[in-house]
Amino acid sequence: MATITIQHLTYAPPARETPVLKDLTATFRGGRFSLLTGPSGSGKTTLLRLIAGLTPLPTTGTITFDDQALASFPATTHSRRVALLFQEPSTQFTMDTVTNELRFVLENQAVDPAQMPARIDAALAFVGIAKLRDRSLMQLSGGEQQKVALASIVAMDSDVILLDEPFASIDPPTRQVLMTKLVQLCHERHKTVILADHDLSGYDQWVDHLTVLDHGMATQLSAAATQARLAAFTPERLRLTQVQLPAPDTPQVLTSHQLGLRRGTRQLLRPQDLAILAHKTTLITGPNGSGKSTFFRALVRLSSYDGTITYRQQDIQKLRRRTYARHVGLMFQAAQAQFLNVTLGEELALSQKNGQHAYFTPDRVAAALKALQLNGREDQVIYSLSSGQQKKFQLLCMLMMAPDVLLLDEPLKGLDLASIHAVRQLLTTTQADLKLTLVLISHQLSGLDSFIDYHLALADQQFSYQAQEVRHES
Amino acid sequence: MNPSLKLATVVLIAFEISFTQVLTVNLALIGFSLIVLVVQRIHFKTLLWLTAVPLFLASALVWSLALQGDASHHFLAVIFTRMFVYVYLGATFTQTTQPLALARSLEQNAKLPAKFAYGFLAAFNLLPKIRAEVATIHAAALMRGQVLHFWSPQLYFKVILAAMNWSDQLADAMTSHGFVEGAPRTYAVTIPLRRRDWLLCGLGFVVVQIGLFVGLP
């Protein structure tokens, strides 16, 4: 039960001039569940990594655990003090199976081998995943992996538990289980829990103090203000006044017959017939981890699936990969996956050469770059752009290819309002001029109304087209 | 047999036959490896690959040597079989050794720093991820109208970039799960290094030495 005090912490990541954290001072009380919030890019991850000791502390500012400076802890006792659960479930393991990972954790703490089986059993039982013990980590779902990560922390018996947006890619029932376990750790084992999340729904009964991180500074809200803020938070509502149920005779571009999707042993989509309609814009929504991205990967033949998918009446497995890839394109959720070259200029030249150059004339490209605030950066290395800039540039590169069907996986993620506006504008004009079929997955819903024709919701392992005005679930 | 000792034996024998020219020993090693592989129930397809690749390389090498120089038939046969010895011996090792057991043995018996042992293991566990990454890069390129072949530098540029990213993630994962470089650790599973292992290793060596230096063709 350690109280964490941060004083006058200023931190700028290497190779960046503007600090992410500016003279930050905050206290997280011992044995409590603290919630840390703030817009994306506000420095939540940076702060948690500093507290966890994964990022070396800068010379200015101190972090103390019960009046003992973080810098003075011997490295060997560190994991007993503090542990961090990552946002991306699959990246936090060293070993192959659940048991081996837990053994690794205990070996690192130099626990007597004779005590290990009992501690592993207890940790797995606490999280309720005893049956996963011999499973391979890579074959678990994101939610199961987060449970294993929590079990590792329970086995380490760390005093302070930090969680960085742990629910970003897992389904609501798993989130509920993890929340209950965290509260139990807090109340029964007196652990200090600090959880970072930008989505504040479902915390009101657990959290007494909210810390808001913005512009590099932290503000701690009083109990009353916290409750008011949590009560006022409603997940962004999806207001689609223009969507319709597709008419039966609408032309289809991608048709699937008895399409079924799986991740490991878990069924994501029960076999069903589904059509994507030509020259329209369709929005796909559904809870985290429900299989939206997997659906996209199946459509571009990067994931296996059951049943058949046809593109303009031809089985996509029978089309040449090369040909099919020019007709159905995917804008990956991770922007860097899309790029093949080093500088922006080279990347643009590639899209210009192989893409729709009749429409994307140099003038039009220059105008688009300006609208996206990317002009004058042709010689810059793509990987030195901020993630928001990469996202915008990625979209432009894929639009210039103008495939018949363009699948967009979270195209607005992490963009500021001005950028969202510019991106929407660019998408609308290009779609109207080139008659593209756009399908997008987006958690960012504001301002999509006028732009969406159809709304496809994934719930209970089934896709269904929705009529107007539906509340978004996650 | 103890994994570290087995690795040492295989590497030393391969090293020795690189500098000697005894066809009988090469053939005996090939025969021995094949027996072990069959007993270990190696997949027929894997064995076919393990044969086809060295067959191609060895044939090319022998053919060019035969055309170029005045190498004897015996020398050509030694070169030809040597390639198979390397591949089959290597396969014998990988088929009979769990990567995790090797990592543990390297840490406990060979006293390799834990960082290297687990780094090796993590790299091994990354293989499926690398395969998926390569498929994604291929697809991303096709969507941009570019076909990447296995010799395309862009493919390697992207894979190396991804690997660098993973290595940072892995370092964080190890640290956050309590790994500290050079700190004392306990072992959940002890890999024994018995007298029997030394005996087997020594015996194998002696047999190969006799074969190499007794004057066999």
From TrEMBL, chain A:
Protein biosynthesis as UniProt keyword: no
InterPro entries: AAA+_ATPase (IPR003593), ABC_transporter-like_ATP-bd (IPR003439), ABC_transporter-like_CS (IPR017871), ABC_transpr_CbiO/EcfA_su (IPR015856), ECF_ABC_transporter_ATP-bd (IPR050095), P-loop_NTPase (IPR027417)
Bilayer topology term: Peripheral membrane protein
UniProtKB keywords: ATP-binding, Cell membrane, Membrane, Nucleotide-binding, Translocase, Transport
Stretches assigned to the ABC transporter domain: 4-240, 254-474
Domain of life per record: Bacteria
Cell location: Cell membrane
Main localization, broad class: membrane
Sequence similarity: Belongs to the ABC transporter superfamily.
The name this protein goes by in its record: ABC-type cobalt transport system, ATPase component
Gene source species: Levilactobacillus namurensis DSM 19117
